[in-house]
Amino acid sequence: MAVDPDKLTEIIRATVDLYRAGEHGLLRLVTRYLATGIDTPGWAIERLAALGQLRRAGQDILDSISDELAETVLQAVANAYAAGGASVLEEIPTELSAGAAAGAAATAVVPRSAAMEALAQALVQDIGARHSNVLRHITDVYRRVVAEGTAASIAGGLTRREASQLTYARLVEQGVVSFVDARGRRWRMSSYVEMAIRTVTQRAAVQGQVDKQRRLGLPFVVVSNEAQECERCRPYEGRVLRIGSGPTGTIEVAHQTTGEPVTIDVRATLDDARSWGFQHPNCRHSVRSYLPGITRLPRQPTADPDGDAARQRQRAIERAIRRWKERELAALTPAAAAQARARVVLWQGQMRQHLAANPTLKRLSYREQIGAGSAPR
């Protein structure tokens, strides 16, 4: 069987949790610095004077993450590659040949993949390069809250705490621990890391599977059927792909066990499918070995509109829970904290009702935590 997306989620858990905890810590840090002495007359001057301390404290948090980043990413990629290779042997019927056991023993040890290690190192460098942008944005948010909160309190008849809360809430919605990419999209740091590490480990799992299939002489794979597939992946869902070069389309090949000729439809090569958008960043599709004459393909078409709608509603509820948990953490007034807590409870109730009405869905508690989600706003 192919490597389950949930298995990959477990593989990347350490890296993603590292950044979720970091995002939580940085947001708490900024909130604490803003709230200190907020009702005293010299608050603005004192807070701006403390900016250097805030920057150093934020840098310490990011440095502690960096110390663990390389190890967690390298381990995740290695585990994904090994899982991909192991998945192939689980799909081969024992009656295929007398040499199946020998083939399993010969391929039991996964060789170190220089390409996978290079992929992991590139990801570590890419993520690490974002740290300075995140720290700069944190200090910019801090300055804006101090400046706009003070000005609004003077002009609008609000207390300084109330005015600062309004400004800070708006900036929290945009993402305090975030950066803007080259295309102008604002990413929360943890969301970017989740997207990047999921994409790389998914690719590593497929590569591990493909490498082992080549050694075993299995040239075909079939694409998994995943919920909420995008337009780029839908043409390949449940279809056969060739892992190397060779003819595609309707072709005749040997039955995997009998050797008799069978006709199969090969949609494309794996490389061509990727060049046309399959397995794009954050794609959850996997592939498994296709054995001509044995493997049964999913029924076409694979779309599930009702299931997709239910899952999309679950994602929306998860976003709402995360949003109000973040607002609660960043509250500068008791009223704001109470309102956010009430909204969290409300949306958690909505989640329970939605899952009860759609029993095929399962609750993913990690997606309700601050920093979950893998797409920019």
Automatic annotation (TrEMBL):
GO terms for molecular function: structural molecule activity. This is Putative phage minor capsid protein. InterPro entries: Phage_A118_VSP1. It comes from Actinoplanes missouriensis (strain ATCC 14538 / DSM 43046 / CBS 188.64 / JCM 3121 / NBRC 102363 / NCIMB 12654 / NRRL B-3342 / UNCC 431).
